[in-house]
Specification:
It is built from two helices and 37 strands. It has about 425 residues and is an all-beta fold. Strands 3, 4, 8, 33, 34 and 35 form a six-stranded mixed β-sheet that branches. A five-stranded mixed β-sheet has the order 5-6-7-9-15, with no helix packed on it. A four-stranded antiparallel β-sheet has the order 10-11-12-16, with no helix packed on it. Strand 25 and strand 26 form a beta hairpin.
Length: about 425
């Protein structure tokens, strides 16, 4: 089948071609600075990668502006943290973070501290690791021995394996976890205690979870084919509605400051779908796009700075990207990056990891069979001057609220920082 998306209500696809209107003579070229964005794979990549399969709903690989991490094959539940700039072959038996008694299902770096990472495990626990004492300013992370479980904080409460962990986007020391026990728990990490448990509302396995931009709500997808908008402070499900009708897992991502989010999932005929929703009125999807027919679930990533939505399918060799706009039709297909080998997992790095001198607007890590490949998405420019129009103020990596302020009812936008000709690293410093 064609990999090109089609908007079933408005467009029909030509075999081997992009979506097209039935009245092609009326089509016009849309003006956008991102029309010519293209993906470029790094010439150097991480080799000798021996990662576990991890959770079916996990991105598997995680990263920030300095490090990458992924679960590793081995006894118990080891995982690897490595310098992002240290491309090349991994050691056959590298030094690991060893604390879980069963496999690690998901990893998430703290957005406010590059040297803190959360791990979710099949052993029903979540662990918080602060490895700053093992990091130097010139060499990054260096491990002479494995990092033991005693170097982490254990968060216990789930009755079954924990599949996903997500840090709060604006408040310090708050972490969300999802488990096969059909509960969502919010942890006060600083005090190593549970701050909230949403125990009711999910009659089946929770497949995915995503915070909105301000962290006032989160959305879940569930095996019962329902999507739920949840308020963590009231421990209530605000809206429940029917999502994708296919039996395979669906995922969700919010679309920045908009009161909208996107879901990716399957139809009954295993067609992969992209749907857009208004979280204030979920009676009907705002827009529906049918992409293709394939078996692999889709990883969605939204870049709030550029309004680009990236979709990478598990087992696919490509990453499609779309531009999200206000109002109908809500989204425009842009292009795709194509590789020679399929991806098992992937993650999008923070904007502070991008090279602004080359007009790079996004960077991903693609996990393949035995390797991790960095992929940069670049806007072609004739001039080498800093492209100020491509870089609005971006997330600064600093919290807007304390845990106590957020739990007390306060909300806030993410703190931002202006990027400049000195590059993202200079702005971060």
């Amino acid at each position: 089948p064609s990999w090109f998306p089609r908007e079933s209500s408005r467009l029909e696809s030509r075999p081997g071609g992009p979506p097209c209107s039935r009245f092609s003579s009326q089509m016009v070229v849309r003006s956008s600075k991102f029309r010519h964005v293209h993906g470029v794979a790094s010439k150097d990549r991480f080799e000798n990668v021996n990662s576990t399969a991890s959770s079916a709903d996990s991105n598997i690989v995680a990263g920030n502006a300095r490090f990458l991490a992924l679960p590793w094959n081995g006894g118990g539940g080891p995982f690897l943290v490595h310098n992002l700039g240290g491309v090349g072959r991994f050691e056959p038996i590298p030094k690991m973070f060893q604390g879980h008694s069963a496999s690690v299902q998901d990893l998430d770096f703290c957005p406010f501290d590059d040297c803190v990472i959360a791990s979710a495990s099949e052993d029903t626990t979540v662990r918080i690791w602060d490895f700053s004492s093992r990091v130097s300013s010139d060499a990054g992370i260096q491990l002479d021995t494995d990092v033991p479980g005693s170097s982490s904080t254990t968060l216990s409460g789930h009755a079954k394996k924990v599949t996903l962990v997500r840090w709060h986007p604006v408040a310090r020391n708050l972490l969300l976890s999802v488990s096969y026990d059909s509960t969502v728990r919010l942890w006060d990490v600083a005090n190593a205690k549970e701050a909230m448990c949403l125990a009711d509302g999910h009659p089946d396995t929770i497949q995915h979870v995503a915070w909105n931009m301000r962290g006032s709500q989160f959305v879940t997808t569930c095996k019962d084919k329902k999507v739920r908008v949840c308020d963590p402070r009231t421990k209530q499900v605000v809206h429940t509605f029917t999502g994708h009708e296919g039996s395979k897992g669906a995922r969700v991502t919010f679309l920045g400051a908009r009161a909208e989010f996107a879901t990716v999932g399957f139809s009954k005929q295993s067609e992969r779908q992209l749907w857009f929703w208004d979280d204030r009125n979920t009676s009907k999807a705002l827009h529906e796009v049918t992409m293709d027919q394939a078996s692999g679930g889709i990883f969605p990533f939204f870049d709030i700075d550029t309004n680009l939505l990236y979709l990478g399918g598990k087992g696919d060799c490509n990453i499609r990207f779309f531009e999200v706009v206000d109002g109908a039709p809500h989204v425009h297909y842009v292009d795709q990056y194509s590789a020679k080998e399929p991806q098992r997992g992937m993650c999008m790095l923070p904007k502070l990891a991008c090279d602004t001198s080359s007009a790079e607007v996004a960077r991903f890590l693609r996990l393949g069979n035995g390797y991790i490949e960095p992929v940069a998405f670049v806007v072609p420019r004739k001039s080498d001057a800093f492209a100020e129009d491509l870089y609005p103020p971006t997330f600064s990596g600093k919290p807007s609220l304390s845990a106590e302020e957020w739990l007390g009812g306060k909300d806030a936008d993410p703190l931002t920082v202006a990027l400049g000709p000195g590059g993202a690293a200079a702005a971060a410093a």
